[in-house]
Design a protein that fits this description.
By secondary structure, the chain is α/β, with parallel strands linked by helices. It contains 18 helices and eleven strands.
């Protein structure tokens, strides 16, 4: 039976991996909408290959180029924020929400409001609007499937078990490329070094987040909203091999762990086939060759991001949205060569100290907090 799918963020790493998997079972899927920020040639090529109904660029200034690239194909082209939301609102069996950052929040909410199934790869959306988004999921009868490898691992380990029987949920972190660096050496870290992750092939922003450990902090907050066990039952450990993607310990002492290669095709396939399984091109684990699996306690002196995220999760209200917005601004400044690596977390913490909004009650409130937090972070960097 053919299933319909829309991919928000089709030209990013998650979108590309999703489309690779769809290629292997092309007869199973009907592609409705593909979106990108601007990559018009790539987006048009994908839209024509997969015979999408519509292709959308978030940057409206790129719409002319998209229309030119799709000329004569019969595929609809659209651009701008509202076009993204409209495309996300088209009824489909599965929406892959993979737009990076808070920019993906409104389209993801539009998909949720259709009451469908959303494979969520945009952790920033859930971090910024956790209460608003989970309320919308309940209100519209939508289903969230976690694409992040850690949350997908937890999701799999929880299957067939009661949440009230959970003693601990443990998120594993690779530690990133700077895990063994001294604080003095971290001061000199370059964008090129930060995006060179030792295990995963990811986009620039998420790679920097992995290097600062903010990615794990965001995932800690995301786990709080996805798995209602309470903050006191969530923890983070460093696992440099990235083989165990997360673990769930139950009150009887049993711990279930999900193991797999460091390839996003594995959790994406889990979502595409759910509640069944599908083939992937990933090489099976060779545990004798891997040899050993090691674990460490996070060093929150060198990498304070996980501490900040934990404090923000306890504070609630608008604090998670401030954390995410300030981090996006600081990471962008670092990638542009304007901010030292070790200042990223400092900017985030100073923004949190400066701006404490009340809890957002709707999407508009979340976006307003996001805008103000960005302005505050930019001002901090300008006057540093």
């Amino acid at each position: 039976m053919t299933r319909s799918i829309s991919i928000l963020g089709a030209t990013g790493s998650v979108g590309a991996s999703t489309l690779d998997l769809i290629r292997s079972e092309r007869e199973t899927w009907r592609v409705v909408a593909l979106t990108a920020n601007c990559s018009t040639e790539e987006l048009a090529k994908l839209a024509m290959e997969f015979e999408a109904e519509i292709a959308v660029v978030g940057d409206e200034s790129c719409l002319g180029g998209l229309r030119d690239a799709l000329a004569g194909s019969g595929i609809e082209a659209a651009g701008g924020a509202q076009a993204l939301r409209d495309a996300a609102a088209r009824p489909v069996d599965l929406t892959v929400a993979a737009i990076v950052g808070c920019a993906g929040l409104a389209p993801t909410m539009a998909a949720i409001e259709q009451g469908g199934t959303i494979a969520l790869a945009n952790k920033e959306a859930l971090v910024s609007a956790g209460d608003v988004m989970t309320a919308a999921v309940a209100r519209h009868g939508a289903t969230l499937l976690p694409v992040d490898s850690e949350h997908n691992a937890i999701f799999q380990c929880l299957q067939g078990n009661a949440v009230e029987d959970v003693r601990w949920i443990t998120l594993t972190a690779s530690g990133g490329p700077f895990r063994t660096w001294t604080r003095e050496k971290l001061d000199t870290a370059t964008p090129g070094q930060a995006v060179a992750h030792p295990n995963w092939d990811m986009g620039a922003k998420i790679s920097v987040d992995s290097a600062t450990m903010m990615n794990k902090g965001l995932e800690f907050i995301e786990a709080y909203y996805l798995f209602p066990v309470g903050l006191d039952r969530l923890r983070i450990i460093v696992h440099p091999q990235s083989i165990i993607h997360s673990m769930v310990e139950y009150r009887d002492g049993s711990t279930l762990a999900q193991l797999g290669p460091s390839d996003m095709k594995v959790p994406i396939a889990s979502c595409l086939a759910w509640p069944k399984r599908m083939d992937t091109p990933c090489e099976p684990l060779d545990l004798p060759t891997i040899g050993s699996l090691t674990f460490e306690t996070p060093d929150e002196t060198r990498f304070p991001a996980t501490r900040l995220a934990r404090e923000v999760a306890h504070a609630g209200g608008g604090a998670p949205a401030v954390l995410n917005a300030a981090n996006e601004v600081a990471v962008a400044s670092f990638l542009a060569g304007h901010l030292p690596f070790t200042r990223i977390a400092v900017v985030v913490e100073e923004t949190l100290n400066r701006y404490s909004p009340s809890a957002p009650s709707g999407l508009g409130d979340v976006l307003a907090v996001d805008r103000e937090a960005r302005e505050q972070a930019l001002q901090l960097m300008e006057h540093a």
